[in-house]
Design brief:
9 strands; about 40% strand; Immunoglobulin-like; 5-stranded antiparallel β-sheet
Length: about 150
C-alpha cells in the first residue's frame, strides 16, 4: 500500500509542477505588452511624400525592458530611433536602433525605459522614426500606442 501511495504522490507532484510551469509562462506573457506599429511619411513632422513604408513591433516587459524591430520597404534607411513625443510633435531620442539587415532595424539587447519614458509609452507618446539620405530628419514615422 505504501508503494502505491508513493507512486500517486509522485504523479500528483508531476501534474502540479506542469501546471506551475504553464502558469508561469502565461503570467510572463501577460506581464509584457506587444504593439504593432505602421510607419509612413504622412506621420512625419512635417509630412513627407514618399512610397516608403514600415512595420514595427514594440514589446515592453514588466521590468520596462524593451524589444522590437522595424522593417522598412521602398527606402534606403540610414538610421532609425525610438523618440519620445506625442503625435504631431517631435522629441528626443530614447533608444537608437541597430541595423541588422538592409531593411530591418532592431532595439538593442538590454534596452530599458526609465519610469518617465514608461509613462510616456503608456500615454502613446513614443514613436519609431526612420531616416534616409533624402530625408535627414525622417522619412517615415509611426506612433507607438499601447
Amino acid at each position: 500500500m505504501a508503494i502505491v501511495w508513493q507512486f500517486a504522490e509522485r504523479k500528483l507532484w508531476v501534474v502540479v509542477s506542469a501546471i506551475i510551469v504553464l502558469f508561469a509562462g502565461y503570467a510572463a506573457s501577460v506581464l509584457s505588452d506587444e504593439v504593432t506599429v505602421t510607419l509612413s511619411g504622412n506621420q512625419e513632422i512635417p509630412p513627407v511624400t514618399t512610397s516608403a513604408l514600415g512595420t514595427g513591433t514594440f514589446t515592453v516587459g514588466a521590468d520596462k525592458s524593451v524589444s522590437g524591430s522595424v522593417t522598412v520597404s521602398g527606402m534606403s534607411a540610414t538610421v532609425a530611433h525610438i523618440h519620445e513625443a506625442a503625435a504631431g510633435t517631435t522629441g528626443s531620442i530614447v533608444i537608437p536602433l541597430t541595423k541588422i539587415s538592409d531593411n530591418v532595424w532592431a532595439v538593442p539587447a538590454g534596452a530599458k525605459l526609465t519610469d518617465a519614458q514608461y509613462e510616456s509609452y503608456k500615454a502613446g507618446n513614443l514613436y519609431y522614426n526612420v531616416h534616409s539620405a533624402a530625408y535627414k530628419s525622417g522619412e517615415i514615422r509611426g506612433q507607438i500606442k499601447p
